[in-house]
Amino acid sequence: MRTTELPLVVVLGDQEPPLLDRVKDRARLRRVGEADLAEALREADALLVWDFLTEALPAAWPEHGGPRWVHTASAGVDRLLFPALLRSGAVITNSRGVFEEPIAEYVAGLVLAMAKDLPGTLDRQRSRIWQHRETERVAGTRAVVVGGGPIGRAVARVLSALGLRVALVSRTARGRDPDFGRVYGFGELAGLLPDADWVVCAAPLTDETADMFDAAAFARMKRGARFVNVGRGPHVVEADLVAALRDGRLGGAALDVFRREPLPPDSPLWTAPGLLISPHMSADTHGWLEDLAELFLANFARWTADRPLRNVVDTTLGYVPMSEAPGGTPHTEEGSP
């Protein structure tokens, strides 16, 4: 951090984040949109990526100088891992700690909605059709949760509480996990898919996880299984998912993230049978913006005091590595809303 004057904190976003007036006596704040980002970055000491869906950073990043600390209001950091930023040596931190429980609740809601055919009930209500039906129990069914970081672990815990038998899949396999007994490695996923009734993707986006759910993966899943993605859009080959739904290989699916957002009106996903679409909202609950701001402010206090920052991303891995979570729960990777 430069010490000659108050540090310049550039905030990227069209909307003003809440609570930042708390640091106006300790920082010069400059909020910019994408058009003014390149100029602002040349003088910035720190960058708050409030608009975490932006794709403007690679082109705007300065060849020399620039922020020494970049904080994103998201868990996923794949949009920040471009060569110029990595070469700069800037420290990257994320917003781990805000999204885990809301996403887990959302996934549980999707699982119950599909098992209990709530979309079918709403369709019949709109058509004033009284049609008694039987639905499924989720207790005793098998779920595979892909992503062993805080978000995946939270999803696995909530599904377990509903009575599902959950297999957690992480980058690295390990035994004697205090919550799940055994954690499987990515290399074991193919062998788990044929027995899964539910497959949930909550993994970070890395070279290893991109396109991991393709035609081959869907073909391995049992007929009628359901698929949920709350990770990143590029985890899924969307055309292959549409094909698996249309031919009845999958019994249903739910996507909260997409390769292109907003999802274009002409996307075949809109009309894929049995697909629930939500606009990247699984983590967004009342008060979440204040929670994100509070997390940034706590790290800002550490930064100005030259104390170690929290949620520092390992740029070689693409997520925040953690050897031990609160309460002694080991895990190694971060999820990615």
Automatic annotation (TrEMBL):
<feature type="domain" description="D-isomer specific 2-hydroxyacid dehydrogenase NAD-binding">
    <location>
        <begin position="109"/>
        <end position="282"/>
    </location>
</feature>
<comment type="similarity">
    <text>Belongs to the D-isomer specific 2-hydroxyacid dehydrogenase family.</text>
</comment>
<keyword id="KW-0560">Oxidoreductase</keyword>
<dbReference type="InterPro" id="IPR006139">
    <property type="entry name" value="D-isomer_2_OHA_DH_cat_dom"/>
</dbReference>
<dbReference type="GO" id="GO:0016616">
    <property type="term" value="F:oxidoreductase activity, acting on the CH-OH group of donors, NAD or NADP as acceptor"/>
</dbReference>
<dbReference type="InterPro" id="IPR036291">
    <property type="entry name" value="NAD(P)-bd_dom_sf"/>
</dbReference>
<protein>
    <submittedName>
        <fullName>2-hydroxyacid dehydrogenase</fullName>
    </submittedName>
</protein>
<feature type="domain" description="D-isomer specific 2-hydroxyacid dehydrogenase catalytic">
    <location>
        <begin position="33"/>
        <end position="313"/>
    </location>
</feature>
<dbReference type="Pfam" id="PF02826">
    <property type="entry name" value="2-Hacid_dh_C"/>
</dbReference>
<keyword id="KW-0520">NAD</keyword>
<dbReference type="InterPro" id="IPR006140">
    <property type="entry name" value="D-isomer_DH_NAD-bd"/>
</dbReference>
<dbReference type="GO" id="GO:0051287">
    <property type="term" value="F:NAD binding"/>
</dbReference>
<dbReference type="Pfam" id="PF00389">
    <property type="entry name" value="2-Hacid_dh"/>
</dbReference>
<dbReference type="InterPro" id="IPR029753">
    <property type="entry name" value="D-isomer_DH_CS"/>
</dbReference>
